[in-house]
Amino acid sequence: MDVAFLADKGGVGKSTLAFHTATRLRQLGQEVALFDLDRQGTAARWDEREQPYFPAYQLNSLAKVPSFPYAVWDTPAHPSQAMRDALVELVDLCVVVATTDPTSQRLAAELARALERRGGVVRLVFNDIPPTSREGRESVEWARGAGLPVLETVVRSYRCYTHAHWDGRAVCDGAYGSADNAWGDICALTSEILAVGPHGD
User: What is the C-alpha to C-alpha distance for residues 196 and 201, in angstroms, rounded to an integer?
Assistant: First the structure.
């Protein structure tokens, strides 16, 4: 199963979600790789240990990509039309990442609909949600009301993601404050992604 995280607005947390989703798949015993199409290579360079969680590749194109049973793709903000078209053909699920910011939501809705028109299986996910806020649930309800395919899991904003990134590891692999809550969100998100299935069932 190939899953791509996309957004038409930078700073929404695609790389964080891609890295941690791949980590959760590996934790579940799956043979997984992370493919990073972003020039910054944030997701591919996250795990700095000598024995990383999984293979990570920073790619300049979609040509000659290694084959793995599971692959998680991180993409640049504002992916080109050519990249969108190629990913729709290549991956099983496009996860469009948004925050509660109105601009992010509008751009996410436009991107999701564009990917669907191209034949992609698409789900929205709301990320970087204040932990004690109703904004995440309200955003899911808004998306559902707008007829957009949306995941029920909202991923909350915790400082532990930043600390884990500094340490070159996942939030589940350190004694970080609120790490259990953060990892719970990642586990729920990954379960929902797997439930979609490779054919969007």
Answer: 5
Contact of 57 with 24, CB cutoff 8 Å: no
Cα gap 136→164, rounded to integer Å? 23
| The 122-129 sheet, strands edge to edge | 56-58, 32-36, 70-74, 2-6, 93-98, 122-129, 150-156
For 30: left if phi > 0, alpha if psi spans -120 to 50, otherwise beta; the answer is beta
Task: Assess whether pLDDT exceeds 90 at residue 18.
Answer: yes
What values do phi and psi take at 31, rounded to 5?
-85, 110
Are the CB atoms for 71 and 32 separated by under 8 Å?
Answer: yes
- SS3 of 146, please? coil
Contact in structure between 91 and 123 (CB atoms under 8 Å): no
Is a pLDDT exceeding 90 seen at residue 63? no
pLDDT in tens, 96-116: 999 999 999 999 999 999 999
Sign of the Cα pseudo-torsion (199, 31, 163, 58, in order): negative
Domains and CATH numbers, the chain: 2-196 (3.40.50.300)
